[in-house]
Specification:
Strand content: 35-45%
Largest sheet: 4 strands, mixed
Shape: elongated
Number of strands: 4
Strand order of the largest sheet: 3-2-1-4
Distance between the termini: 47 Å
Oligomer: single chain
Radius of gyration: 14 Å
Structural class: alpha+beta
Order of helices and strands: EEEHE
Length: 85
């Protein structure tokens, strides 16, 4: 059985500055249950968040006695919620 994960990235951008933080969450396949999530320092492309999220996916797979490759982790970029008015 192959495990497939969805890694959702959302970067918060302050108009006065560049990216300020990237929040990521990891789910298995289409399941809405979040396996892991965290916030990383902001960067325009979410490099830190992608690396951390993929590491969390590998760790979850190892707990199940399985191995995965980066291709088993689908990365989705979500729009951040609108800032409070």
């Amino acid at each position: 059985m192959a495990l497939h994960y969805t890694l959702t990235l959302s970067t918060t951008v302050d108009p006065a500055r560049k990216a300020t933080a990237t929040v990521w969450s990891l789910t298995e396949g289409a399941s809405p249950a979040v396996i892991a999530s965290a916030a990383c320092p902001g960067d325009e492309h979410g490099d830190h968040a992608r690396a951390d999220g993929r590491a969390a996916a590998r760790k979850d797979a190892l707990k199940r006695g399985l191995r995965i490759v980066d291709a088993n982790v689908r990365v989705v970029y979500a729009r951040p919620a609108a800032p409070p008015a």
